[in-house]
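S.,

Sequence below, as promised.
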Amino acid sequence: MTRLTYKDAGVDTALKAETLARLRARVKPGRPEVIGGIGGFGGLFRAPTGKDLVLVATTDGVGTKTEIARLLDRHDVIGTDVVHQSVNDAAATGAEPLFFLDYFATSKLEPGIFERIVDAIAAACEAHGCALLGGETAEMPGTYAAGAYDVVGFLVGAVERDRLLCPANAREGDACIGLPSNGLHTNGYTLARAAIAREAEARGIEPREVLRASRPELRGGSLGDALLEPHRSYLEDVRVLRGTAQVRSIAHLTGGGWEGNLPRALPDGLGAAIDRSTWVVPPVFRILGTMGNVPNGDQWDTWNMGIGLIAIVAREDERAALRALPDAIAIGHVERAVGDRRIRARSRAHGRHPHGPVPGDQRHACSGAGRDGPGAARRRGAARGARGLRPRPGGRLL
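The prediction came back faster than expected:
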């Protein structure tokens, strides 16, 4: 009987060690609190000190966007995405990022692809002042199909307790301020891929050809380009908003679309009336909806439809919030929830605040609203725009 080695079974530990050694030489600590380097059994980070600091932990994966990246051999965006989505989740609580870890699993390690992803992770961490503290790399033949991989991120941030943002802060009449997305971000790609597969089958071509074809609706760009736009980071936007207005809570629109995410930023009993006429849904969503004949309700319950983050802001600070961020849009307001669904699409003709005067400010155990406002934080730069999305006329109240 011939000998059977781990490499024969599909796992090349020597190749993994060589690849990781190259990456360790390139990855910088990122923050002064980091103790030691990458490669130990645990990443070391000096405990933050401050007035009643709360640690915030988030984790998320990029999902099947990896399949689009694989088809088009454009993997760097996956590394960017896995950091940005976790930074946004932490920012939704008011936290600043401290350190990040990643998990990369595949059937067989391909160093070129793996290094591109980790280099992008390191660059995104550095851009956000976040330490890349370590990660796990797993070869799992038999679990993943040939060429397939998965990437998951884990982030820890911190915020002072009285600066926390949480659903209990929101109240009836508060304004909903939407910030544009760059497209699907990292959610709903299974539905998108199914729609693309239908189109390819109907035309007798490969999905890759559907992705690469130039489209006038996308200003000559391809559907693949639109689907591989990076998940926008909203950290700087949140910093600016909190220095300008009373931000009650924040919803990051990810898996589950509008109904699955906006209620997470609201207390029980409250919902939101959203005026969908205040922005133009980017063409990538219309293309996918048409290709797959996807019901309108499913689109809104799966995709972000052009709005990636919603800040719940005190009604009296709505105009200040809109002035602070050039691409922010007033998209609705908080109202009493009626029925099983808490997010209601409405027309601007119905009026903006049907519930009358807003109750006075109240503090909650996790409230940070009282600390936000002019002078509370320094504005640190202009917010970035997003491709393919512009407010409709009248969509902003300036």
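The chain has two domains: 6-163, 167-371.

Coffee later?
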